[in-house]
């Protein structure tokens, strides 16, 4: 971990995990995920873990708030088993406290009471 400078204020960091727009049925001109992220396929579990470890090795841990975010697609539009797989990868980081929370990109029409219960 990188050490904080004396007197520096704690910062907020988000570790980005980019998922392409596979789960989104729309092709909005402002949201061309292939061009934005350079990805056409979902990241493998190994790629997700590698990204998290890489970022954690460079972020000052003491006093920082660190989250992981699934960006670039409609996360809740992915099949539930895929969502569960990605979220389960983050559980050890949440339990040990190296990651404080999870963010995700989605569309309002891909949120249901069942999805909200699942995410809790």
Short description:
The chain has 4 helices and 3 strands, in the order βααβαβα.
Tell me about this structure.
By secondary structure, the protein is an alpha/beta fold. The protein has one domain (13-23, 32-119). It has 4 helices and 3 strands, in the order E-H-H-E-H-E-H. It has helices at residues 33-37, 45-56, 80-96, 113-119; strands at residues 12-18, 65-71, 101-104. The chain has a 3-stranded parallel β-sheet, with helices on one face. Helix 3 links the parallel strand 2 and strand 3 (101-104). It is globular, with a radius of gyration of 16 Å. The protein starts with 11 loop residues before the first strand and ends with a helix.
Approximately how much beta-strand content do the residues carry? 15-25%
Q: Runs with pLDDT <50, length 5+?
A: none
Shape: globular
* Radius of gyration from CA coordinates: 16 Å
Structural class, by secondary structure, is alpha/beta
Q: Work out the helix count.
A: 4
What's the structural domain tally? Answer: 1
From the N-terminal CA to the C-terminal CA, the straight-line distance is 30 Å
Q: How are strands sequenced across the largest beta sheet? A: 1-2-3
**Biggest sheet features:** 3 strands, parallel
Q: What percent of residues adopt helix (DSSP H or I)?
A: 25-40%
Overall pLDDT confidence:
84
Query: What order do the helices and strands follow?
Result: EHHEHEH
Structure summary, number of beta strands:
3
